[in-house]
Design brief:
The protein starts with a helix and ends in a 6-residue tail after the last helix. The strands form three sheets. A two-stranded antiparallel sheet has the order 1-2. A hairpin with a 5-residue loop joins strand 1 and strand 2. It is mostly helical.
Length: 381
């Protein structure tokens, strides 16, 4: 059986990969949904936009569900703490996700412009609320979440819903929304053959790539310099489970979130990539290399996830009430047996899910325009 420390690190990487996959796939859907009214000026244009993600939006939920399942299995305490401390935001997120299938599946059932517009609004709402709430939650995790646990491991949250929304968290939310919009725009460019839509997408991609660079720099500076963070000075134990009981050396101090970069200065290349990739997206878009633009968008999301991981490591959810009870990758994991069994399952099934996702996109990849929609009107949403 594998060493527990190795399993802890392995599952941190696995969950990071699943989150990245969910952001890339669901980010396409949500980016397209946000752009629906911005780019689509009439019903036919909105139908073109919606049908670029029609074959994939429900399949992409596999990544979201798998991420939630992995979180529950590998980090049960983290799973419970998130739902306890962010209960109202998560309920709002779920409600917004419920609106999306209604918008997609029932849009074409009634040939009525008002009904179709309502469904379009459902899709847009269900696309913009999830990244906004994820950004708010992430911003609060950087600040520290006001929770503690008693001796029976009951979780108590001292947070207030309105206190979640401060300038720092809103800045992170806006950054994530811009990433998602950029990702959606880069995808739409390779799927749409309509000149009027592509003209708007071209402008949006360049504008939001510039905004992304600005907002990322502001967010990174805000987190690493202006936001007080948490630092841990681990004690050496033979039994890693003792770490939770004795990690009283967690401190709350300024510049703590930049600690991992200061220890390993070569890691600064990762946040730097988050400025380089949007710039490369602009350049590749100018030269009409649309697939390369989309690849740079994917790489940008990957580098953002890695940047967050480097900033936070080894913390997952720090506690702003009892620092000693902060959740780290060492004290939040399941048993060695559970992690080992789950690891074998992931090794078998994750490549299958990944290959199936790639195959679906490749198989159903074709450009859509007005002629295609009108020709097969009953076939499309």
């Amino acid at each position: 059986m594998l060493n527990h420390k190795i399993l802890c690190i392995s599952w941190s990487l696995i969950i990071s990969v699943l989150m990245t996959g969910s952001l890339i796939t669901n980010g396409i859907d949500m980016g397209v949904g946000i752009l629906l009214f911005i780019v689509g000026k009439n019903n036919i244009e909105r139908r073109i936009i919606i049908n670029t993600i029609a074959p994939h939006w429900d399949g992409n939920q596999v990544w979201l569900i798998t991420t939630g399942a992995a979180l529950f299995a590998a980090w049960p305490i983290v799973y419970a703490t998130i739902f306890s401390c962010f209960y109202i935001p998560i309920i709002l997120l779920l409600i917004s996700l419920f609106l999306r299938p209604v918008g997609f599946e029932y849009r074409s059932k009634i040939k009525n412009k008002i009904w179709q517009k309502i469904c379009d609004i459902f899709i847009s709402i269900g696309s913009i609320i999830p990244p906004f709430i994820i950004g708010i939650a992430l911003g609060n995790i950087f600040k520290g979440v006001p929770f503690y646990r008693d001796r029976y491991y009951h979780i108590f949250s001292k947070g207030n819903f309105l206190n979640l929304f401060d300038l720092s968290s809103i800045l992170i939310s806006l950054t994530i929304i811009i990433v998602i919009i950029n990702h959606g725009a880069s995808y739409l460019q390779i799927r749409i053959k309509e000149n009027s839509i592509n003209y708007r997408l071209n402008i949006i991609l360049k504008l939001f790539s510039i905004l992304l660079m600005i907002f990322f720099i502001l967010s990174f500076i805000n987190i690493t310099i202006y936001t007080k963070g948490y630092k841990i000075y681990p004690l050496l134990h033979n039994n890693v489970k003792e770490f939770f009981i004795e990690n009283s050396n967690v401190t709350y101090e300024k510049y703590a979130w930049i600690n991992n970069f200061q220890k390993n200065t070569y890691l600064y290349i990762i946040p730097l990539l988050n400025v380089i990739f949007p710039l490369l997206m602009i350049l590749s878009s100018l030269f009409k290399k649309l697939i390369i633009t989309f690849i740079f968008s994917i790489l940008n999301i990957i580098s953002i996830v890695i940047t967050i991981g480097i900033i936070m490591f080894p913390f997952i959810i720090p506690s702003s009430i009892k620092y000693i009870q902060s959740l780290t990758i060492w004290n939040s994991t399941s048993s060695t047996l559970t992690l080992t069994i789950m690891l074998y399952i992931v090794i078998i099934f994750m490549p299958i899910v990944l290959m199936y996702t790639i195959w679906c996109y490749k198989k159903m990849f074709f450009k859509i325009d007005k002629k295609e929609i009108k020709k097969k009107s009953n076939f499309y949403y």
